[in-house]
Amino acid sequence: MPADLAVIGLGHLGLPLAQAAVAAGIDTIGYDTDHRAVAGLAAGHTPVDGPLSASDIRRMLSGGFRPTTNPTELGRVRTAVICAPTPLGADRTPDLTAIGDAARALAARLRPHTTVLLESPAAPGTTEDFLRPLLEEGSGLRAGRDFHLAYSPGRFDPGNRTHGFANTPKVIGGLTPACTESAAAFYGRLTDKVVRARGPREAETVKLLETNFRHVNIALVNEMAVLCHDLGVDLWDVIRCAETKPFGFQAFRPGPGVGGHGVPMDPSYLPQAGRTPGHPLRMVGLAQEINTRMPQYVIQRCATLLNEHGKSARGARVLLLGVTYKQDLADQESSPATEIASRLMDLGAAVSYHDPYVSDWRVRDLPVPRADSLYEAAANADLTVLLQAHRTYDLQGLAVKAQLLLDTRGASPAGAAYRL
Predict the structure, then answer these.
(1) What 3-state class would DSSP assign to 319?
(2) Number of Cβ atoms within 10 Å of the Cβ of 253
(3) What is the pLDDT of residues 114-135, one digit of tens each?
(4) CA-to-CA distance for 108 and 102, rounded, in angstroms?
(5) For a disulfide at 7, which of 18, 111, 177, 370, Cβ 3.0-4.6 Å?
């Protein structure tokens, strides 16, 4: 059966897009090469760490959503959106393997007049210099003449109860004006506002700016956290007061590290950036350096607290609360909890964890004991460390039960715990 839309890549970007499309009445298929994940979706199950709940998936299926591993389905759609993952590799450049695989699968079946969109995080130039040649060579068609090609940065914020797909503006940049308008016509069915960029490179750079903005500002407030601790200043009170300024300030809060799928990117690492002399985004590199130091800073605070209370990190029972990267989600992508647990183990601590969204957690391929009774575990632990402040946690009660409580999120009542 033909469909209006194919979402290629059923991960943290693809599934929410498919959900929005189905809700808008668009006949949608979801393509992925992971047979196990697709079978689970077809059965109404959400992937581990998935952005949607099982009930969300079941509603999508009842609305006509069809997950598939059959690439021939891609030749029967009017619009195809590539939502493949692009993690940073060891050389700090985005790994475009999944985009390449998706492009080849689509190109072999690409029909004239199809609109092809890329939503994956990608460096400026990826749509034109990487995706376009693959599509043209594999299909024999020409982008901008035989089919439309555009980029739109993904903006889905999992767990956000205020901004969903419909009320979050969608930026688009097409290879030609006609490509831009075709993309606008599609996204206009899903969102209240479409913003047209001058082209795909501008749209790609929007994602670059948005992601780096987050990381740079988190780095600033993480440095402030270390400084304020040394000065004996309550940073959380500083932020509370500063955010009353009605202009020129946006509040960010420190934490044990930066997790999530949006990774900071410095174009100086990218091949096409070689034309630009020097180091164009030095602040991004510095922010990354600061943020990657935060897990070690948490370890230092843990060791100091234990020492101040006559205990050694070696042999200490340490309970970690919340091991996901974001509040009230199961997603563990790049969560600093893994590094923190690993470093505590190196110090000889006996590490356990509690997280209402994670039933099984492994560090270094070894299972970490899960606390069944939260209050009992906190009372028995020499140190309890809050890494993610899930709303289900009664932090006032935990502060009473725990022998020592280190709050890395500033979520506990003032004076109830040691703060980062």
Answers:
(1) strand
(2) 17
(3) 999 999 998 899 999 999 999 9
(4) 10
(5) 18
CA atoms of 80 and 90, how far apart (whole Å): 30
21 neighbors 28 (Cβ within 8 angstroms): yes
C-alpha 228/C-alpha 245 separation (Å) is: 20
As a whole number of angstroms, the distance between CA 318 and CA 199 comes to 51
Checking if the pLDDT of 274 tops 80, the result is no
What pLDDT does residue 227 have? 95
For the whole model, what pTM was predicted?
0.87
Tally Cβ neighbours within 10 Å of residue 416: 17
Say yes or no to pLDDT of 267 above 60. no
What's the pLDDT at 262? 67
Of 4, 30, 27, nearest in space to 16 by CA: 30
Tokens of 160: 């956000």
Please name the helix (run of DSSP H) or strand (run of DSSP E) that holds residue 401, with its range, or none. Answer: helix 395-401
SS3 180: helix
The neighbour count for residue 210, using CB atoms within 10 Å, is 14
How far apart CA 182 and CA 30 sit, in angstroms, is 21
Spell out the long-range contacts of 50-56 with Cβ–Cβ below 8 A and sequence spacing 24 or more: 50/12, 50/15, 50/330, 50/331, 51/11, 51/12, 51/15, 51/16, 51/156, 51/158, 51/329, 51/331, 52/15, 52/16, 52/19, 56/19
* Per-residue pLDDT tens over the stretch 166-215: 999 999 999 999 999 999 999 999 999 999 999 999 999 999 999 999 99
Query: How far apart (Å, rounded) are the C-alpha atoms in residues 238 and 287?
Result: 21
The one-letter amino acid at 188: G
Q: How much of the chain is in helix, strand and coil states, percent to nearest 5?
A: 40, 15, 45
Count Cβ neighbours within 10 Å for each residue of 46-80 and write b for 16 or more, e otherwise.
bbebbbbeeebbebbbebebbbbbebebbeebbbb
Contacts of 93 (CB under 8 A, 6+ apart): 123, 269, 270, 271
Between CA 268 and CA 316 the distance in angstroms is 43
- Give pLDDT tens digits for 70-89: 999 999 999 999 999 988 77
Residue 334: pLDDT band (50, 70, 90) is: confident
Q: By C-alpha distance, which of 310, 337, 299 is closest to 403?
A: 310
